[in-house]
């Protein structure tokens, strides 16, 4: 499988819904499509934030097999805080470094926005994800992992 990575387009929304729904249901939660659509449309309509949505696509089938959303939120400290959302890789594409590459791309994007720190929510059941984030330098604090960026 040859994977290409690119910024998401509005035409990717259906694939993003499918990937996110798969992730949410895998975590034994209920997928709220209306809430997801509201969030994704808000991000896609923001000229800065939409640059933080990345898609991993199987070059042969042109099928999206992974996604990540890297957004910026104002932190209590007044500094910008980056956040990784909807980090999803389809089950048949896991174990190939796709998630790691998506996270790298989101981190690099968030660095360009001068974020001081990047956070991502995790669950205890996501052992592979926790290991990946730890290898990338994230530190766990409860259900969140944080990566402090050099200023």
Key structural traits:
7-stranded mixed β-sheet, Aminopeptidase, 4 helices, alpha+beta, 151 residues
Task: Describe the fold and architecture.
With 151 residues, this protein is an alpha+beta fold. It has one domain: 3-Layer(aba) Sandwich (Aminopeptidase). The chain contains 4 helices and 7 strands; from the N terminus they run E-H-H-E-E-E-H-E-H-E-E. Strands 1-2-3-4-5-7-6 form a 7-stranded mixed β-sheet. A hairpin with a 2-residue loop joins strand 6 and strand 7. It is globular, with a radius of gyration of 15 Å.
Strand order of the largest sheet: 1-2-3-4-5-7-6
Beta-strand portion reads 25-35%
- The domain count comes to 1
Helix fraction by DSSP (H/I, runs of at least 4): 25-40%
Number of helices: 4
> Mind telling me the CATH superfamily name?
Gcn5-related N-acetyltransferase (GNAT)
Structural class by helix and strand composition: alpha+beta
> Do you know the CATH architecture?
3-Layer(aba) Sandwich
Structural Rg: 15 Å
Task: Show unreliable segments.
Answer: none
Q: What would CATH call the class?
A: Alpha Beta
| Backbone shape | globular
CATH topology: Aminopeptidase
